[in-house]
Amino acid sequence: MHTKDQLEKPTAPPPLPELPEAAEGEETSDLILVRRSQDQDMGAYDQLVRRYQERIYATVYHMTSNHEDANDLVQETFVKAYRALKSFKGDSSFYTWIYRIAVNKTINFLKQRKNRIHLSLDDVDFNAENDPDLVALVSEKTPRRDLNLSELQEKLNSAMLKLSEHHRMVVTLHDIQGLSHEEIGAIMDCNVGTVRSRLFYARQQLQAHLADYLK
Amino acid sequence: MNTNPENFETLRKALAIKRHEVPPPGYFNNLSSNIAARIERGECELTFWERLHSSFTLRPAFAYAFAIAAFGTFTASVLHSGKPTAAQALHQEGLATALGPAAAPADFAADNDNPFSAPLHVPNWLGNTNPGAPPQVLPSLFAPQSHAVTVSYEYGN
After folding, report:
1. A145 touches chain B (CB under 8 A)
2. Span(s) in chain A for CATH 1.10.1740.10
3. What residue ranges of chain B have pLDDT lower than 50?
4. Which of A131, B17, B25, B73 is paired with A37 by a 20 to 30 Å CA distance?
5. B22: helix, strand or coil
């Protein structure tokens, strides 16, 4: 059993520029767009889709490591959300609500697809070569310093796929997308302690899976 | 890589590469129109069961309430099915009082309108497994008009 300090210490979220925490104005605007969408205004729903499509796609893609699957799941998520929009009462933000649909849909898909894994990775953008974290990582004098970015990408995605769906989801939402523990708890319908615990064990497992490549 | 379980700094750096993975150029330009097309094609119609499942997925509390209600209904129906209704009880009690305890079963069996009054058909070959029942007379294997012919033999012929 790990102490609270052990679980909390490694969970400091990295400062990311694309933190998807919804601003107050954005949330208000979301509500207006939701109300209009509930009145069959497709233009309003199109705005909501455009607002969240990149975040939802990223979540699903990092879970599946497959662009085609992610594309299907993102479309199904937004279609399903539109179907269920009448039942949206505004108890939570639209952002949490749509994430919840995407997360549940993706986890169900992965459970059905168990053991039929096929990587179809997106390209790494040119900014990656200038990312200080990646520069430091690749240039370190390690036994595998010949490891290039595309190899690292493949190894990392393979290691991610070895995690359970819930552990992978927590790493995706926190370490890659920068959501807070509280937001993840609201999305995954579990308490913050569970989120912290899952994150700790997921990182431990990832570290073990990648030990040969990143010594 | 630092394998200290409390130090995930190298792992955090490695995960940075995931933030640089991007879908093919122009992908997000078409995504919303694809979604709108699917909605307009009528893929947004929900059946009753899909709506129910959707409610369960999005509101676990609703799923629990539904499960409790279903279990309660099942339990109540099981308990209720073992007891006769008040009308049935009154009817049977009235019959028993009017005809006496011995006559009641016979009268009940003679009621032609009652579908349960007809005796169950039991095939002869099935036999009776009730040890307290009177012995069952089975038909003879020989025809009743058959008769035996006496014969005699003399020793030595």
Report:
1. no
2. 22-119
3. 1-3, 102-104, 106, 108-109
4. B25
5. strand
Among A11, A38, A124, A198, most B C-beta atoms within 10 A, so best to mutate, is: A124
pLDDT digits (tens, 9 = 90+) for A114-159: 766 777 777 777 777 777 777 777 666 455 545 677 888 888 899 9
Q: What is the ipTM of this complex?
A: 0.75
β B21-22/A123-124 pair status:
antiparallel
pLDDT tens-digit readout, B94-124: 655 655 554 445 454 455 565 555 556 655 5
Which residues of B fall within a CB distance of 8 Å from A84?
46, 54, 58
> Does the A128-215 domain belong in CATH 1.10.10.10?
yes
Compare CB distances from B13 to A53, A133, A208 and report the shortest one's residue: A133
Q: What are phi and psi of A204, to 5 degrees?
A: -60, -45
Question: Which of B6, B17, B34 is facing A128, going by the closest CB pair?
Answer: B17
For domain A22-119, the CATH class is mainly alpha
DSSP A113-125: TTT----BPPEEP
Tell me the C-alpha to C-alpha distance, in Å, between residue B150 and each of B147, B153, B156. 10, 10, 19
Question: Of B27, B35, B40, which has the smallest distance from its Cβ to A78's Cβ?
Answer: B35
- Measure the CA–CA gap between A91 and A103, rounded to whole angstroms: 18
Residue in A with minimal Cα distance to B11: A207
User: Do A124 and B55 count as a contact with CB atoms less than 8 A apart?
Assistant: no
| Residue A133 neighbours by CB under 8 Å, 6+ apart | B12, B13, B16
